[in-house]
Amino acid sequence: MNRRGRRAWRSVFTLYLPVTPFVLFALFPLYFMFVTSLKKNSELYDPTSIPFLIRRGVTFGHYQLLSGDTLFWSWFLNSLLVSLGATIVSVVLGILAAYPLARLRFPGGDSFGVAIFVTYLVPPSLLFLPLTTVVNRLGLSDSLWSLVVTYPTFLVPFCTWLLMGYFRTVPREIEECAMLDGCGRVQTMLRILLPVAVPGVICAALFAFTLSWNEFLYALVFVSPAELKTMTVGVFSELIRGDIYYWGGLMAGACIGSLPIVIAYVFFLDYYVSGLTAGAVK
Amino acid sequence: MTSEPRRLSRRHFIGTAAAGVGAAVALDRAPAVAQTRELTFLTVASFVPETDKELKRQFEEWGAKNKVKVRLDIIAHLQLQTKKAAEVQARSGHDLTALGPGLGDADLYFDYLADLNDVAGDVAPKNGGWLNPDDYLIRGKWKLLPWWQPPFPMAVRTDLLEQIGEKNPDTWEDWLRVGRKGKAIGHPFGTALGHSGDANVTLLSILWSYGGSYVSKDGKTITINSKETRAAMEFVKRLYSEAMDPEVVAWDDASNNRCLNAGKCIAIHNPISAYESAKKDKVVIPGSQKEIADFIDHVHTPKGPAGRKATTGFWCVGIWNFSKNVDLAKDFLRYHFQPDNQNRWVEAGHGFNMPFLTSLTKHSVYKSDRQYRFIPEVAKVTVPPSWPGPTTAASQQVWDLYIIPDMFAQYATGKMTVDQAIAWGEKEMQEIYAGRRRKP
Predict the structure, then answer these.
(1) What's the whole-number mean pLDDT along residues A200-211?
(2) What is d(CA B95, CA B289) in angstroms, rounded to the nearest whole number?
(3) d(CA B381, CA B153)
(4) Among the partner residues B44, B83, B254, nearest to A221 by beta-carbon distance
(5) Is the Cβ pair B284, A42 closer than 8 Å?
(6) Do B37-150+312-380 and B154-310+401-436 fold alike per CATH?
(7) Distances B106 to B111, B139, B394 between C-alpha atoms, Å
(8) pLDDT tens track for B39-58
(9) Position A278 in a domain
């Protein structure tokens, strides 16, 4: 066996085998959702069937049920619009908040940072009641804007905290060089720091998008009309009827619902895992 | 001779328009002719989807007749508590709202619900009267209209019953025997002992059937610590250990349906939803091509040494008093509760949604399928969950916190002795009732 062959064998034992259990663990929910969404009801109900395999043929009936008998694609679009809107707003505000907290020294700066973190810890199950009043006063109830406005209440602290940590890893020297060359504070942030911090910003955006996409409570409370529901609430409302759960439809909804997140992560994976400030300082 | 229409001069038009806009701005609303009245209704997704379609049809029909824009919002029943809490907090939201499960919502939200004495009075005579009107009064007032209930018969697999040589089981002891024999051939009895509405219903039914109760008629004295409760708990312990699988302590409302339709359970205490979904989905008995719905029958809720009693989710409808359309909402309720509309609505629900109105319990749908024959009988012995005590916020809390299922499960699973479990339940209930007691 030549050197290349030996190296390949070694990587099987040192890399692939150790990683396999983790990959299986991570992919199992997706696999299970997908398999369940393609099973016929008769097989879903059968306790003697093997839950992880399809033995009695594939059906697309659950997907047809979602598309034909519910407003699933409207809910999907609503989720997308709300998540994109809330993410953009939150990342922009997060950058504006994180930069001074990470770079500038001013009285109470540290306490302010901690306060933002503590804000993030307040659970939405406590906040939704007072927020209902706020949303109402703003005249936003029963509109998607109510979600675009309220999601940043938990996204901005998260983005700020994440970006603060990230900005601190960017060497101060590259900004100082820019300032010596005549850049102002804002220019430095926009032209020097942000291009270097793109992976951090993308990371924050990805997390913000994921949190918005999965959000349930505010979407339930602030929006009632069926055509304005987000996917998380719509699927739950329509496919759980008392003690009847439409398992196939629920799993089909979960499968389709996970696609944008999967695509987003796959698309930005390189940014996400790339060396964060590699090459910034030589 | 026809008169020529008077021409509107430009100056007159501008003057009128300016006055109209000025008035609208001053009043902060559009002039009456331009206002669109809108009535909104929040309800829960029916267990039989056709019911929602019929309700929507009636709502839209009423809206068209009265030139009112209507909006029916349907959510899963598990979401209703959150939604109601938010609407009350903001004093804004829907005009009409579903309340439940249980009548206690009306006590919890007493100060936010419009009085419905007039509507309840109008509706009753046209429908043969309310079934048990005293049960539905909250602090002596109609704060809600009881809307529908899914009575709890016993759903049983007839082929398995025949296989074990049993006929017409009727008492809880009969069903224990059936469950024991069924479990021996791999088909246990199934009733939830976990945190689910079904567990509340079945265990309260057993408690009452053995002569027990948890609160007295005065609505203050906790009566759970009794020899009758002990007898009921001994029965449930035997039922759990001899006739059921341990998984029942983790069951939710859907689990017993699944157990029956999967061909596993010999019998479950449940409304007809399992049968309806088995029929709709053409579910077959595992290992055969036979449709399981053909082998399910529904019989009377079992009786115990002290008689036959049952409860269920009492689904109700109310109007928020912060609604700007209270009168319109009342008008719709009168329309919806007209005999014709109720008839159609019950028909659409295949009898699953039984109204609390005497004439509707004799609806022809209950004779349309042999499966439904016992539903009116079960309704006759169905009482509110707080029976014999009145419905209060405290009784609703006992239901919502699953005190009864927890008490039974702790003894059945051997975590506590019977005395410890009852003492635990009694303490919990006393604290809830003391906490909710209003100052004079």
Answers:
(1) 92
(2) 49
(3) 11
(4) B83
(5) yes
(6) yes
(7) 9, 10, 12
(8) 999 999 988 888 999 999 99
(9) no
Does the pLDDT value for residue B20 go beyond 80? no
Residues in chain B: 440
Shared domain for A7 and A86, answered yes or no, is no
Residue A166 and residue A48 in one domain: no
- Which of B157, B277, B288, B296 to mutate to test binding with chain A, by most A CBs within 10 Å of its CB? B277
Measure in Å the smallest separation between the Cα of B13 and chain A Cα atoms: 33
- Indicate which of A45, A133, A217 best probes the interface with B, i.e. most B CBs within 10 Å of its own CB: A45
- Give A165-191 pLDDT, tens digit per residue: 888 888 889 889 999 999 898 899 999
Nearest one of B312, B375, B384, B405 to B155, comparing CA atoms: B375
Same domain, A25 and A116: no
CATH class of B154-310+401-436: alpha beta
Distances from the Cα of A141 to the Cα of B7, B78, B325, angstroms: 44, 21, 18
CATH class of domain segment(s) B37-150+312-380: alpha beta
**For the packed helices A198-214 and A152-169, what is the interaxial angle rounded to 10 degrees?**
160
Same domain, A178 and A53: no
| Mean pLDDT over each residue of chain A, to the nearest integer | 89
Q: What is the ipTM of this complex?
A: 0.80
DSSP one-letter string for chain A: --HHHHHHHHHIIIIIHHHHHHHHHHHHHHHHHHHHHHB-HHHHH-TTS-TTS--S-B--HHHHHHHHHS-HHHHHHHHHHHHHHHHHHHHHHHHHHHHHHHH---TTHHHHHHHHHHHHHS-HHHHHHHHHHHHHHTT-TTSTHHHHHHTHHHHHHHHHHHHHHHHHHS-HHHHHHHHHTT--HHHIIIIIIHHHTHHHHHHHHHHHHHHHHH--HHHHHH--SGGG--HHHHHHHHHEETTEE-HHHHHHHHHHHHHHHHHHHHHTHHHHHS-SSTTT--
Q: Residue A186: which CATH number? A: 1.10.3720.10
Domain ranges for chain B, please list them: 37-150+312-380, 154-310+401-436
